[in-house]
Specification:
Order of helices and strands: HHHHHHHHHHHHH
Strand content: under 5%
Number of strands: 0
Largest sheet: none
Helix content: over 70%
Distance between the termini: 53 Å
Amino acid sequence: MKPRKVSFAPLRQWSLAQHRTRRSFAAWPAAVRGMAWMVAGGLLFSLLNTLARSLTLHLDVYQSQFLRYLMGLLVILPWVVRGGWRSYMPVNMAGQFWRGGVHTLGLILWFTALPQIPLADMTAIGFTGPIFIMIGAAWFLGEPMRPDRWVAASIGFVGVLVVVLPKMSGVGGWYSLVMLASSPVFAASFLITKALTRYEKPGVIVLWQALTVSVLSLPMALPHWQMPTALQWLGFAATGVLGTLGHYCLTRAFALADISATQSLRFLDLVWASVLGWLVFGDVPSQSTWLGAFVILCATVWIARREGRRNIPVPD
């Protein structure tokens, strides 16, 4: 019998398809590419939040915070070993630790409230972040604050209020305020990230965030430590993959476009969170949640079309 020939045609076709997709994506305006990265990051973080909420219902929230970033660090290590430690050494070490410290503070607030409020409401409250980010980008980064960006963010924020206000008087009202307090802290973290993208590679930023947050979260994780089950370890490994990919997408988005231009697209996360919360936790979104989501979606589509027409050249 003659040995069977192995056909590599499907692999070649897949490689060609990837090459064409990359070329097509590279031809898009830089602002639109930045927005595409932001949408991808939002979807990944919605999946991450769903999984993290499931884990925090059974384990200490601060242990969950530590393990989520520790797993993210382990996910990145193979690329670090392959590329060499020197290629991942930051230009600004102090900036990386400042970013890690600020982000850890935001995570402490966020993880404290995470198991206590529905996923869609949690996501909606987090959408106050773009307002803080746009103000900070104008004040500290010198980005132009075009009127249409303010209009899009304001309309989106109105949609968030439609979701949040009816629930503020309920049992989870206090935790809603804790979640709300994390928004300006995360905004500061993202602004530091945007500043770092001017001279740091996305992979370096993602690695040092995972490293610094893991180190700073460990002291809070130890007092109530309990050994996770095999399934929980698998869940944390998945959060590491999702979180690493999500932060990489955000970093690419910030490198390609003004940070204020990408923020209105974060409002799409409410749609993902509503669907996932219903599928996983049985949280049926209220009429106010869907009405707010519709308002948010309108603002998102409108600003995306306007930013796409600008075609501002930004280095990749």
